[in-house]
Specification:
The complex is a heterodimer of chains A (53) and B (474). Chain A has 53 residues and is mainly alpha-helical. Chain A is 64% helix and 0% strand. Among the domains of chain B are: 89 residues, Serine Threonine Protein Phosphatase 5, Tetratricopeptide repeat (Alpha Horseshoe); 104 residues, Serine Threonine Protein Phosphatase 5, Tetratricopeptide repeat (Alpha Horseshoe). Chain B starts with 25 loop residues before the first helix and ends with a helix. The chains are: A mainly alpha (53), B mainly alpha (474).
């Protein structure tokens, strides 16, 4: 049996034209490559810190 | 499609080392490969209108490689197809920013941009959907249904609107309608999980028909046991009932037909009949009115004739009176001449003269007689008036004594006519009136006695009699 109230919560307002700019600017565009680069940078930074110690 | 190094941006070859910076690009190439696989998967799903599955695959593809322009453009296209126009435009704008040249997003955006009416229509659709959703949160479910129907009339491909409408129908127990909306949504997006769930719910709630099939299945089939017709955006499904009460229904149908016939007679035939009767009556009334007018005119004529005749009658009556006067005057003249003749023949024949003058009353004809007549009468009276008066007085007095008051009154009145100087004549005349019961004439006569003969015994007696009459009257 479907719970109307719970189902209704799943519906979100549709995006309107006026909201388009905010959506574009706030969209998270990071992909797997960016994640990998960050991981590599972090790994390199950690290696340098260990060498300094 | 060329692949570029994630570190330096140089174009990569088939090897796993970047020829420019020497970076290991094997992992990167695998990621790009996975991204492309997701894109291909999405493409296959989109070809069978599994929009939900395609969107999920494209999102995965873009998570792996944000620069997968084809995946992003396809995602925008699918968003646009499902009614999410703003999300589609966002993807195309981002795509354009990531790859400015030779980008299919240009075509899509131009398509939308060059049709302001379509853009406005899309915007109105989205706004109305949001209003409908707002109505749902405020318990205005009926208004929400109306609003969603408007949305779907503007954009029948808006899947989210179909789903919300299906949910509202499920909530209100309109299982058939909910099922239809779910089927429409699934036709647009065959992989829509929500639509499938709602469809399952609707099917489970629908009662099985006589043939063991669901009512909704019967509706969707080409069965001749149902009548289907469209009312606006909605398909009305009306099962053809074949109940054992068919005969009863027929009887009721006949009764209903009879009632409708009577009603039709009342509302269609009777008004015309009433109108014709009214027109007939009005013509009759007009005819009667005309006749009445003519009768009134005749009555006026008759009244005028009556007045004319009455005036003629009055004229004739006056003439008759004149003639009667002439006759009476003529008779008086004859009487006077006869009496004069008797006096000239035999002056002692008082009775003859009295008989001749019997019917002559000078007071009555005084206006119609000539001066010569009056002079002759006066002369004759000076000669025989006293004798005539004495004769009448004696006769009258004898009658008074004999209590023959009628004769007494007639003779005493004549006696007083010929000689008005005898108080006894007048007094006994009054007594005769009194004794005969004619009190009015008695009073008049007694008054004359008192007035004409004051200080006489008769006057005092008349006074006493008059007092008696007055006392008896009180």
């Amino acid at each position: 049996m479907i719970n109307f109230e719970e189902e209704l919560k799943k519906f979100r307002p549709s995006l309107e034209i006026e909201d388009a700019e905010d959506i574009i600017y706030n969209q998270d565009l990071d992909d797997m490559s960016d994640v990998l680069i960050k991981l590599l940078k972090n790994a390199k930074a950690d290696g340098q810190d260990n060498q300094k110690r | 499609m060329t692949m570029k190094c994630f570190r330096c941006g140089a174009v990569l070859d088939k090897g796993n080392i970047c020829p420019a910076c020497g970076a290991d690009v094997s992992t990167y190439k695998k990621i790009i490969s996975f991204s492309n696989k997701f894109y291909n998967d999405a493409l296959e799903k989109a070809n069978v209108r599994d929009m939900t599955g395609a969107i999920n695959s494209l999102r995965e593809s873009l998570k792996l490689d944000k620069n997968n322009i084809d995946a992003r453009n396809l995602l925008g296209l699918i968003y646009f197809e499902t009614g999410e126009a703003v999300a589609a435009l966002s993807e195309w704008v981002i795509s354009k920013n990531l790859k400015a040249e030779d980008n299919l997003a240009d075509y899509y955006m131009d398509m939308v941009r060059n049709s302001p009416a379509q853009l406005d229509n899309i915007n109105q659709t989205i706004k109305k959907f949001n209003i409908a959703l707002n109505y749902c949160h405020q318990d205005g479910l009926d208004l929400a249904v109306i609003q969603l129907k408007k949305v779907l009339s503007l954009n029948p491909g808006f899947i989210k609107a179909h789903l919300l409408l299906a949910l509202l129908y499920l909530n209100s127990g309109n299982w058939d309608r909910a099922k239809i909306e779910c089927q429409k949504a699934l036709k647009l997006d065959s992989g829509n999980v929500m639509a499938k769930r709602y469809l399952k719910e609707a099917d489970s709630m629908l009662l099985p028909g006589e043939s063991g099939k669901l009512v909704s299945d019967i509706a969707s089939s080409d069965s001749e046991d149902v009548i289907r017709y469209n009312s606006g955006n909605e398909m009305i499904i009306q099962p053809v009932k074949k109940s054992p009460l068919t005969k009863t229904t027929s009887i009721w149908g006949i009764v209903l037909g009879a009632i409708l016939g009577v009603a039709a007679a009342c509302f269609l035939i009777l008004p015309q009949r009433i109108q014709s009767i009214n027109s007939t009556n009005q013509s009759k009334i007009a005819q009667i009115s005309e006749e009445s007018d003519s009768k009134s005119a005749q009555i006026n004529d008759y009244e005028q004739q009556i007045k004319s005749l009455q005036s003629q009658i009055a004229d004739l009556e006056s003439r008759v009176t004149d003639y009667e006067g002439v006759d009476s005057t003529s008779a008086a003249m004859n009487s006077l001449m006869n009496a004069t003749n008797i006096y000239l023949t035999d002056s002692s024949d008082i009775d003859g003269m009295a008989a001749a003058l019997e019917k002559l009353d000078l007071n009555v004809i005084s206006d119609d007689v000539s001066t010569e007549f009056t002079t002759l009468y006066d002369t004759l009276m000076s000669l025989v008036g006293t004798k005539l008066a004495t004769s009448y007085y004696n006769t009258g007095y004898d009658a008074y004594k004999a209590e023959d008051y009628e004769t007494a009154i007639a003779n005493l009145a004549k006696a007083y006519q010929y000689d008005n100087s005898n108080v006894n004549t007048l007094y006994y005349l009054g007594n005769s009136y009194y004794q005969s019961g004619d009190l009015d004439n008695a009073k008049t006569t007694y008054d004359a006695v008192i007035t004409n003969f004051p200080d006489t015994q008769s006057a005092s007696s008349a006074q006493t009699k008059l007092a008696e009459i007055n006392n008896s009257g009180n």
